[in-house]
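note to self: dont lose this again. the chain is below, predicted strucutre after it. 202 aa total, dont forget to put it in the shared folder this time
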Amino acid sequence: MPQHRLTREESQEQTRQRLIEAACRQVAGRGFASTTVRDIAKEAGYTQGAFYSNFKSKEDLLLDLLRQHKEQEALRITGAVATAGEDFGKAFSALESWARDFGMDASQAMLATELQLHAARHPGFGQAYAALMEQQRQIYAQLLDRLFALAGHAPPVPTPALAGSLMALARSQAIDHALYGGASAGEVLVTVLRSLFQRQGA
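---
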């Protein structure tokens, strides 16, 4: 069977994804500051020139990774809840299913920690990082608005603040679980979400 010949666009996308995967491994294993563009390119099997043909910097690559991940997560959860229509029970079940699947392995936990630390220490990267996280927070706030409307009662605090707290809890618990064991982020999220909507018997 003839091998599929990649188009220029497909080849470039393949290169970008391999560089992203290599960067994830390098940053998780060595730390952001200790990882160089040369390390990433070598790990992926490319030259530094190939790296700079696709990304301006390590920061640019990791922001692209974060953007992809956040978009995929947002599509998955909003799509699942949307299929429930106006049925609160079905919508909440979809939210629970998503929460149970939320998790990170040890490498992903280390990468998430490195990104947060780098954002805290470097204002330029931190602004871009915060903007992406804010977009995610607004998506989750809108989702919570919908669920509370279906449930028929007001949220205990404004939904943007609630969404931000849930995101922080999920990240922290996922890291703790990946590194030290114990309850998964999904288990904790489900417990918290049930307490928020317990009036409806979710």
